């Protein structure tokens, strides 16, 4: 059901199912499903009681159309089927063997409420380096300690359900999980994916996750992050913790981060990334276009190439100017990039304040701006997304609720 569209009686889509909420009780008592977690426009997750669900068919859920837009908050007595049950390790009451839950089924009862009825399980614990065990279906009553298992829980099936999510959306899901479950999910992500997710999380959650990872793994994840984001995260740790992780990082990666840590957070030096696209003036436009096609580049960094004298690693030789991708697309591919430099855009020094950087971006309609040192060498670039992160309120990721609540109040 995860991802299934939810419609009102008129056929208008309300949102998509992201999870189901169950109340699990010990023994052989029925395990009731009390509602669905539905994502509505604005990425808000709301609770829809099963009493408001009129039908569940293949590919669609029909509701009465009455949806409370208050943000869903999980209660201590509630269990998220996707978030909490998938990959949970439990015991079969029939023979005492250990199984891992890979899926569950829910069905309506004669009393017209919904209950968890069966589970698709696999023998053995998740994450072990061995052939996957036998998989089979059992009645939900055959699983012992379903309501109170405190064992370490895997996350493979949970992440499979969220595989297509963008990092910002997956970060929102991770943030909504209990702390212990957040760490389990973070441990199951590969370094690149976890780095992308960490960059979208609030600082306190970033610190919580990074502090619980083994030192070598934490260093690998920091290396996979953008240097400016890694520096922001390390600045939230104690000096001893930050230095320990820097020592575990590759020297080249650590050097970039150390340079950024030397600047205040609200200055151009603290905001910049030290890895913009840099070429010499004699390079062909075709080479520049090939470089900005790299998938690991953000759209803001891919919008311009910075032209400098050698060396071309930051800090570079003398900074000459920037070439915008739109201008390059209008010119012959063999033409030298030094001939299409935008001479009007002046670089900013590393000590420029956040407000000055924002004004510069707005004045020149830019998405990135060059930052130079006192002798005119390019040391990095500030992108508009980094400026917005610092200009918006501290908890801007949760601000959707306030906006929607205000809109609802205005409508009433």
The rounded distance between the terminal residues' Cα atoms is 33 Å
Shape: elongated
Tell me the CATH superfamily of the largest domain.
CBS-domain
Number of strands: 18
Q: What Rg is obtained from the alpha carbons, in whole angstroms?
A: 26 Å
Report the helical percentage.
Answer: 25-40%
The overall average pLDDT, rounded, is: 87
Low-pLDDT residue intervals, each spanning 5 or more residues: 401-412
| Number of helical stretches of at least 4 residues | 16
Can you tell me the CATH topology of the largest domain? CBS-domain
Q: What's the story with the biggest beta sheet?
A: 12 strands, mixed
By CATH, the architecture of the largest domain is named Roll
Question: In terms of structural class, how would the helical and strand content be classed?
Answer: alpha+beta
Beta-strand percentage?
A: 15-25%
Task: Outline the structure in words.
It is built from 16 helices and 18 strands. Residues 401-412 have low confidence and may be disordered. It is elongated, with a radius of gyration of 26 Å. It has helices at residues 81-85, 156-161, 167-176, 179-188, 191-198, 203-212, 215-224, 227-234, 239-248, 251-261, 268-271, 285-292, 325-329, 354-363, 384-391, 400-411; strands spanning 5-7, 13-23, 31-40, 44-49, 53-57, 60-63, 79-80, 89-92, 98-108, 114-123, 135-139, 143-144, 278-279, 304-308, 319-324, 348-349, 368-372, 378-383. Helix 8 (227-234) crosses helix 10 (251-261). It is α+β, with helices and mostly antiparallel strands and 412 residues long. 33% of the residues lie in helices and 24% in strands. The strands form 3 sheets. Strands 1, 2, 3, 4, 5, 6, 7, 8, 9, 10, 11 and 12 form a 12-stranded mixed sheet that branches. A 3-stranded mixed sheet has the order 13-14-15. The protein has 4 domains: 5-81, SH3 type barrels (Roll); 87-156; 159-262, MgtE N-terminal domain-like (MgtE N-terminal fold, Alpha Horseshoe), CATH 1.25.60.10; 278-391, Roll (CBS-domain), CATH 3.10.580.10.
